[in-house]
Amino acid sequence: MLGIAIVEDDREQAALLETHIKRYAAEHQLVVSVSVFYDAVTFLEKYTQGYQMIFMDIKMPMLDGMDAARFLRERDQKVVLVFVTTMRQYAIQGYDVDAADFIVKPVNYPEFALKFTRLLGKVERPEAVSPDVFIKTENSFVRLAPSDIFYVEVKGHYCVYHTASGEYRRYQALKNAEASLSSRSFARCNNFLLVNLEHVSRIDGMSVFVEGEELQISHPKRKAFVEAFSQFMERL
């Protein structure tokens, strides 16, 4: 869900902007939650970091949008901030508070939709977190955090989870292990191995080295595996 706040003292303009957001969401199958504040003071008093995007009017009573944005940036440097204004001259000041864009009133939907599409690319989405893996042994259950798994290997009808504390077998298909480890830090290097990219030290030709162990990369999987590793490294 995309959390959006509108900070606008003009109730008609606030309602129009909310309508545009919900129309865009409906047209693009986007789940959004929109909160509206009619003054910046109330917005800052109630602010939580559950928002990914904020539309802020500049000319408001008590505290204008530019000053409010400065207070906001002291608490949240990541949220996407968009100024809504009738005055383009504020655009230069927007750089001081890392504003992503400006929307000029009155806001028409076609222009809004174009800008909103670009703004979505700036939103920092949280990584999906894979749940822990539970494996039944002869006498107990073992709980494995995904970050502790080096790689998963297919052996017959079992998946073998290789970890720092040992190897654990589970009756399971590799595709099901892959689905449960939905984090983007896992990728297949061949049809029988699912590698945790967090533990890769290097890739050399058709080999990948995982915690000092050399594993083979198949030709059909190499391009996708190398791309997955490159994307993983870019996120670090």
TrEMBL record:
Residues of the Response regulatory domain: 3-120
PROSITE patterns referenced in this protein's UniProt entry, alphabetically: HTH_LYTTR, RESPONSE_REGULATORY
DNA-binding among keywords: yes
Gene3D superfamilies: 3.40.50.2300, LytTr DNA-binding domain
Keyword Phosphoprotein set for record: yes
InterPro entries found in the cross-reference section: CheY-like_superfamily, LytR-like, LytTR_DNA-bd_dom, Sig_transdc_resp-reg_receiver
4-aspartylphosphate sites (modified residues): D57
Domain HTH LytTR-type: 135-231
Assigned keywords, A-Z: DNA-binding, Phosphoprotein
One Pfam family named in its UniProt record: LytTR
GO molecular function, one term: phosphorelay response regulator activity
PANTHER family associated with the record: STAGE 0 SPORULATION PROTEIN A HOMOLOG (PTHR37299:SF1), TRANSCRIPTIONAL REGULATOR-RELATED (PTHR37299)
Protein task: May play the central regulatory role in sporulation. It may be an element of the effector pathway responsible for the activation of sporulation genes in response to nutritional stress. Spo0A may act in concert with spo0H (a sigma factor) to control the expression of some genes that are critical to the sporulation process.
The protein's name: Stage 0 sporulation protein A homolog
Organism: Pseudoflavonifractor capillosus ATCC 29799
